[in-house]
Write a structure and sequence with these properties.
CATH class of the largest domain: Alpha Beta
Number of domains: 2
Order of helices and strands: EEEHEEEHEHEHHHEHEEHEHE
Largest sheet: 6 strands, mixed
Strand content: 15-25%
Number of helices: 9
Shape: globular
CATH architecture of the largest domain: Alpha-Beta Complex
CATH superfamily of the largest domain: Medium-chain alcohol dehydrogenases, catalytic domain
Structural class: alpha/beta
Oligomer: single chain
Helix content: 25-40%
Length: about 325
Amino acid sequence: MSILNSGVWLLKSSGEFVAKEAPFSRAGGDEIVIQNKAVAINLMDWKFQIFRPHLPFPKHYPFMREGYGIGRNVTAFKKGDRAVGETNWFLTNDTRDSAFQNYSICKTSVCPLTLSTAAMGLCPTRRLEISLLQTTKPNLIHQVVLIWSGSSSTGSAAIELTVTSEFVKRLGATAVLDYDNESIAQDLVQTIKETFGEFVGALDTVGEEMTWRGCAEVVKGLGGDRVGSNLSAGFMNVPDGVEVVGVNYTAHLLNNKEIVEGVWGHFVPESLKNGSLKPASNPQAIGKGLEKIPEGVALCQSEISAGNAVVTL
C-alpha cells in the first residue's frame, strides 16, 4: 500500500518555509518509522532559515510520536508505542531523517535534543568535562559551571544535569543573575569566586556572538578556561587564556556510551519516576498541521526565549 507523506521545506535561500510532498521511507534493521504526533520548534531553528546549510532544506527536530514501522532487529519497540527522539538530518542531509514531516526515520536509541545538547556540552572530553550524575541524588563533586541563559530549553536541561528568577532557582541553580545588566560580567566573576568549588567553565546555551563573548569575558576574569557554545563555529578574537568550542554534534551522542548510559539509562528514567526531573521549558502550542510550523519558527526568532513552540500533526 502506498503511503503519502508531506514535510516542511525551505526551497530558496532566505525564503519562506512551505509544506509539500515528501518521500516516505521504510525502516532499516535497527530503525523505526515514526508517525509524528507533535513537533517542537527549537530556538536555533530560525538560524537555519538564514544560514541554510543545504537546499532544499527539510526541518528536523521531533517531539512526540508513535511507532509506525519497526525494523527487523528492533526488540524494544512495537508498532503503536509512543516514543520521543531526535533526528539527525543536519548530519546526513537525508530527508528521511527530518522530523518536520508526517513520517520520520529514527534510530531506536536516539534521544531528545535539549538533554542531548546539554550532556554533550557538559560531559565529554574537550568540552567542560563535568562529572556525570549516576543517580538521581546530587553528587557532591564541588564543581562550578556558568550556564548562560538558564531559562532556555538547553539551559534548563543543563542545570538539571549538573545540580539535580525563581524559574531557574527552582531547577537548582545556586545563583541567578540578569544578563542584561551592564555589569553582568563583573557580577558573575564575583559570584563565582564566592561560590564553593572548582570553576570548570561556561556553557552558552543560546549560541550567539554576544552570549559566547559574555561567557568568555567571565572565564577570562576567572583566570581562563573553556566555553562551550551552541554556536558551532566562527569564534574570532577570543580572549587570551580562553578556549571556545562548539557543541554541534549531538548526533554523535551514541559514540559516548558512558554519557548515554548515565543520562538516558539511569538519570532520566529514575528522575521521571520520582518526579525530580522537571519539564521546565513551557511549550507554547500554536496549532495543528505542517502549515503552522513557519509561524512557530518566526515566534522562536522574535518572541519565545524560555521554551519551545509546539505544533501538533
